Amino acid sequence: MIHSVLIFNTSGVPRLTKFYTPLRSESQPLIRKIFSLISPRPASLCNFLDAPELQSFLGSKIGEEVRVVYRNYATLYFVFVVDGAESELGILDLIQVFVESLDRAFENVCELDLVFHFDDVHHILGELIQGGLVLETNVDEISEAVQTSQQTRKESFMTANPLALGVGAGGPRSSTLQTPLGWLTNKLTGVGAR
Amino acid sequence: MWERNLQDLIRGLRASKKDESKFIAKAMDEIRQEVRTKDMELKAAAVLKLTYLEMMGYDMSWASFYVVEVMSSPRFHLKSMGYLAAAQSFEQDTDVLMLTTNLLKKDLTAATPSDVAVALNGLSQIVTPDLGRDMTPTLIAMLNHSRANIRKRAVLAFYKVVLKYPEALELGFSRLKEKLEDPDPGVLCATVNVFCELSRQNPRDYLSLAPQLFHIMTTSSNNWMLIKIIKLFGVLCPHEPRLVKKLLPPITDLISTTPAISLLYECVHTCIIGGMLEGASGYSLAKTCVTKLAAFLEDSDQNLKYIALLALVKIVPSHPHLLAEYESRILTSIDDQDLSIRMRALDLISAMVNRDNLQSIVQQLLSHLAMPDSSLGTTVTAAQSLQSAPGRTTTAKNPMSPTQSTSYRTTLASRILQIASADVYANVTDFEWYLSVLFDLAYVAKAPVGPAIRDQLVDVSIRVPQVRRYAVSLSVKLLGDDTFIDNGRADDDVDGSGCQEVLWAGALLCGEFCEHITDVRKVLAALLQPPATNLSPEIISVYLQSAAKIFSHWAADCASHWVEDLLPDVKELVEFMVVGVTPLTASSDIEVQERAANILQLFGFIRADLAAHRPKPAPQYVNGFADPSTAAFDPAAPDAEPLFPKSMYLLHPLFKAYALNPVAPEAQASIPIPEGLDLDAWIVPQARSVADGGADDESDIKGKKKEKRDKKGKGKEKAGGSKNGKPKASEDAAGPSEDRRAVEAELARVRTYHPSAIVESLTSFQLKAKRLEEMRDDPYYIFDDRLKRNDFVDIDSIPVVRLDGLPPLSQDGDSPHRVSTPPSISRPRTPQPQYTIIRDGEMPTSSTAATTPPASTETTPSLLRKVTSDRPVAPPALSSFPPYDADVDVPRTSTPDPIKVTRVKKATGKKKRTKDVTPAEL
């Protein structure tokens, strides 16, 4: 099972936190701990975080050994905390699927998209994972489902606010975009290359 | 009125980075206002803002009711905001959750699929046992929903419900099983996923699914699902041996054909954990698996290296020989710049250790601790992070490489200790080497592993008699190393990474095996002079004791070949001891103080005796020392006066009466319970205290006083000549033996020289009694009467074990344990000495003969018996060690008298313990 999904940037500011099993401790120290362990790791190292002090941090909430799988895209870290029921390499692929889905939904996604549309990111994640179990892994299926629900939300918003000019869900994107993640997602080859 | 929406809030946050807390406080105030409005849009926007702030670590539990309001909105875009907020913020004990039951039921059965999807997603997150019970029928019905999209979600949500409400599984199992034949691949995948999770808790219940799963495995091409099915089989296989046979062909096929490395890896992993590699048929598969994994080790992809190490750990126990050829490759992984890989390699290496490679592995790990780590320097990190993220330079700061962190060093150091000591040092062939490793570790670990090193040092030295000489020589070196002591001074060594505890072991070994010390004076100086006196009290306590032991041995040694020329030397050393110990009698630590005071008194006596010593043996001892009992100390001629000062043998029997042997863990349990001792009986009868409590106040107190007096009187009676008798007896009442009695007699005599000490302590007892009397009448002072009753130890009532057949004390000097010449076993070091490890430790011999423990030999673990049978091991108990005999001469009633706790009263002047002296005596 997937215990949590975290996104934070290279300064350690959380952009999305999702805990599928309740944490016994505070979530913020955990994020800080994981960030402090991940940030000094150069890109050439493996995508699994293993440190002696980590298990005690994670182990307090779940009995068995959990693994931290992460990937770095431009200015963002995508961190999945999973247990033995998940395949390590599979989760790496899943992170890739997640980023690709974000990329399709936002068209060349960048950190600011995640900042200003954090609710949308949650909805997209909700099409990938439900309650810690993988719901769908096909990018096409995911983006189709994302589009449908986005459309539904938009319609619902428009009927409620006939005069609004699309400020609500899926609103216009900021013009001050930074490096898009997209060019990276194409370059990164998934380990499994399923 | 202008309201901020989420975007405004985020913009504001980004704009006011300097004064974030102020901005957030203001925003929170606004939110508090906004959630109270009737405008649903505004309320929802406020809840969304709150959800964002919750991610940043701010509390939103106070808003749970508003969240439910937003959830219940009929508008989908608001509803999804509400569900999101609920999923993020609700806990299991959130009270408004019970308000959501009907809402969820309504949403789950809504006509619009998006509503249902949102509700299912939300339910998976917030489900509680109550919600689970209420939703189970609806969910089971939804497993057959017409839309595949909803079915998929329902299957996953059903699992979450089962987690909270296990009864649901029984109701929905057959329906869930049907989903394994669902036409939609997504639903099928979700179902497999759910079964994979379920089977991890209870594999046996899901063996019946094997045929269906097998069918899916052979027909599907979805790698995601195949991974899950393979994982599922990995869990099931250990419980159904027939599965292995069935699975072998398809899995072998997958391993050789699949292009997806993740699937290949899972297949290999399942083969290993599913026990498919056993037997002749499994051998070739095992070879294939190891070859595949070893190829991963060579791969440039660090991820593959990591998982290969992860899987190889599991194959070591069954096929260690297969890994032998990759040993060097695995060893280099220990040096990998990636900490994650190092950790895994460390695991694997620990599993691979055997007698042949232990030394090289330990040396390599040690070198890691010893060398400053340069493989993961800051320059590399900086370059890498710059490369991966242009424009960001702050993260390049890397003050300490993670491989140098204390926790990593602790892991590494404790791993060294762990792999070497596994199975009672089964893999250690050269114990002198291992001792030097332990001492090196104390120097290089720079991690709080001191207690572990200490314990192993003592353990090894006691279990392996041949290394004691070497251990002592290393200890002497350590104790004399001022830089080591300074490095770990208590004030700048907060986390104990200086390993000061090793000094404890060093001192203990020096004291216990002092016959191996060559330069007594140097060791005593290291033990009693600064910087040693600045160590922690626990260590100083051992230092003091060891110093006394070393002196005692040295003095006995001198006496055995006494010439009068030695007298100045002895006097000088006694002075040295007195000077060294005296400051410690003022120590603030009670243990140090007491030991120092004890030793000082003993040395005062020795000093007096030495001063009175005359070259010619003459009976002019005025101190009553020509007592027959002291003649027992003279090994040469019991009747004639010895040539040397008698006090030379004063300390020796105090410390050297018994050899220090390893004791078997079961030894304590194997000691037969003495006849007539009822462990289940109440020590303090309960009924009496109840009766006491019921009595009239005034008479009650009087009654207790009387009772107390009675007890005191009895105590006096029993203690008999306690004033000059044996004030120290209670300290070790568990087993006073012949020589101890002699020692006590000596001590008593020592104390008679200072009657003022006893008088002083008696006076303080009197004062205490007076104070107690006053308190008794003070209505505001509450004290426990029952506790008071237990105030004084009745020594005679404590069951003791008498030790029969002890060698007479006069032979002490001749016993092999105490001779000053080196024992024959410690010959000069040979390249590969034959070490005997006392593995099983000492057992009370009477335990086998005793009738009380039903099967004392059976309680010994079979492991130990096996070890002893196939290794040449020294006899567990020394022949000089007499069997314990159940006591016969101590009178004992069927129920022992209540055990009383002695309140130790410290005499301020002389720092001496006086027991068994009650106020009633005065």
From TrEMBL, chain A:
One of its GO terms (biological process) is vesicle-mediated transport. One of its GO terms (cellular component) is membrane coat. It is found in: Endomembrane system. InterPro entries: AP_complex_ssu, AP_mu_sigma_su, Clathrin_sm-chain_CS, Longin-like_dom_sf. Keywords: Membrane, Protein transport, Transport. Residues 1-151 form the AP complex mu/sigma subunit domain. This is Adaptor protein complex sigma subunit. Belongs to the adaptor complexes small subunit family. It comes from the Eukaryota. It comes from Rickenella mellea.
Automatic annotation (TrEMBL), chain B:
Residues 821-834, 844-862 have a biased composition (Low complexity). Coiled coil: none annotated. GO terms for cellular component: AP-3 adaptor complex; endosome membrane; Golgi apparatus. Keywords: Golgi apparatus, Membrane, Protein transport, Repeat, Transport. It comes from the Eukaryota. Residues 386-406, 691-741, 804-922 are annotated as: Disordered. Residues 703-715, 902-914 have a biased composition (Basic residues). Its main location: membrane. Belongs to the adaptor complexes large subunit family. Part of the AP-3 complex, an adaptor-related complex which is not clathrin-associated. The complex is associated with the Golgi region as well as more peripheral structures. It facilitates the budding of vesicles from the Golgi membrane. Adaptor protein complex 3 (AP-3) is a heterotetramer. This is AP-3 complex subunit delta. It comes from Rickenella mellea.
